[in-house]
Amino acid sequence: MRGGNLLGGLRLGGLSTRPLDFPCFVKMEFRASISSEGADLSSNDQLEFLPWLRRKSGREISSMLSIGWSSYGRSLFSSRRIHAGECMLSVPYSAQLSPDITPSFLRPQICNDVGAIGRLAIVLLAEMRRGQGSDWAPYISRLPGFDEMHCLIFWSDDELEMIRSSQIYHEVHDHRTSIEKEYLAAKPIFDHYVGYFGLVSLKSFMHAYAIVGSRAWGTSKGVSLIPFADFLNHDGNSENVLMSNEDSETSEVISARDYAAGEQVLIRYGKFPNATLLLDFGFTLKDNKYDQVQISMDVPQDDPLYSVKCELLQKHCMPRLENGTSKHDRGTFTIKEVKVVHGSGKGIPPALRAFVRVLSANSLDELEEMNVEASENDGRLARRPLKNRTREITGHRILLSQITSMIQRYDVSLQSLRYVAIAPGRSEWPCRIEMARDLLSGELRVLKSAYSWLCNYCSD
């Protein structure tokens, strides 16, 4: 799970707003213009899905929303005028697919090495095996097939090569390995209960795992797949969010604004950059305002003050690599878009600027001065501009040089996308090329904004 806290949130009189770690799956046609959208319910939805959902819930899920089609695929539209503050949909926990339905004979056999997503994936695999005999068949039949999913774990090596410039390229292997470990932890169960699960391969487990990871929501019961709410599509500017009402044991969406009849209703899944969206959820957004870039900085080992600088960085707890390494000669930082060239550089982390100030020092006296200043103030190292303007600029030019190199790599990668050959029989390639372009373009935009600010700062 990336980008949020599963059960964290603000409680308001029993209504708990929950950050959306698990947005619903978004169809990949989202870039087409919405020209023929509307609440045009398919016969299967009308005759099968909605009646099943009413029976499962024991009541209407929503009297305000209708299922229709848009460029996103299945979508939800207002069936009448909706006013801000009205509850647009309410799905009881009893109509949500959660680990609670795990048979009692299986629960003690699922080891702790299987996480929350993996546990629900096991439940989903069992229900998939039952086919039309499953109580959840009308819902499961509407889940995306393997070929419809574009999470990075399903990309081939050739496809991943398109995004090598991005830090997310290096995370795909770790993500796959993590899922494989959960599969191996659950495999004794699959092997012992073949009649219950069928033959569960790593590929089928990854498929179920990705469905859960890209569609499920957090409730007090853990993670749950929520029918009907799945059809809500994403708008990064929307104030609508899915909330868990623990008093009524329902998942709800309260309208944040007025809607006209027939208008598509969208929600915000979370403030995720394209790297996260692509790794975990299998889609990207053009011009995603939440894009960011990870940058790693090293203390050169041939630096005469190498050991002293590392000791100073260790003492003041500078950021470490995400893999938990204990090395103190490197820091990993996240840069966001710098909006104002002549401003304070908001978007470039203060800790990163502090790191390069330490790098710029060429005497023990300078390092000791930084140490004393940090100790006498709030304990944070080198957060103020150095008194020696030359040293201050030297440090920022080190950062500028690294960002310049990164920009050059991104430019080359984006240029190469023009010449990517689409493999025969790989219909998903054009879509994934476009997603790679969105990812790289967004991160390049962030890097260029930092470059412009640094150039201005170093020239003042």
Largest sheet: 5 strands, antiparallel
Low-confidence stretches: 1-36, 321-326
Number of helices: 13
For the termini, the CA-CA separation is 43 Å
Radius of gyration over all CA atoms, rounded: 25 Å
Secondary-structure class: alpha+beta
SSE topology:
Blueprint: E1 10-12, E2 15-17, H1 43-57, E3 65-70, E4 73-78, E5 87-92, H2 116-130, H3 137-140, H4 157-161, H5 168-192, H6 194-197, H7 202-215, E6 217-219, E7 222-224, E8 233-234, E9 242-245, E10 250-254, E11 266-267, H8 274-281, E12 292-298, H9 306-315, E13 330-336, H10 350-360, H11 364-376, H12 389-416, H13 429-459
Helix pairs in contact: 2-7, 10-12, 12-13
Key phrases:
460 residues, alpha+beta
Protein described:
The chain has 460 residues and is an alpha+beta fold. The chain has 13 helices and 13 strands. The protein has helices at 43-57, 116-130, 137-140, 157-161, 168-192, 194-197, 202-215, 274-281, 306-315, 350-360, 364-376, 389-416, 429-459, and strands at 10-12, 15-17, 65-70, 73-78, 87-92, 217-219, 222-224, 233-234, 242-245, 250-254, 266-267, 292-298, 330-336. A 5-stranded antiparallel beta sheet has the order 1-2-9-10-5, with no helix packed on it. Strands 3-4 form a two-stranded antiparallel sheet. Strand 6 and strand 7 (222-224) form a beta hairpin. Helix 2 (116-130) packs across helix 7 and helix 12 (389-416) packs antiparallel against helix 13. The radius of gyration is 25 Å and the shape is elongated. Residues 1-36 and 321-326 have low confidence and may be disordered.
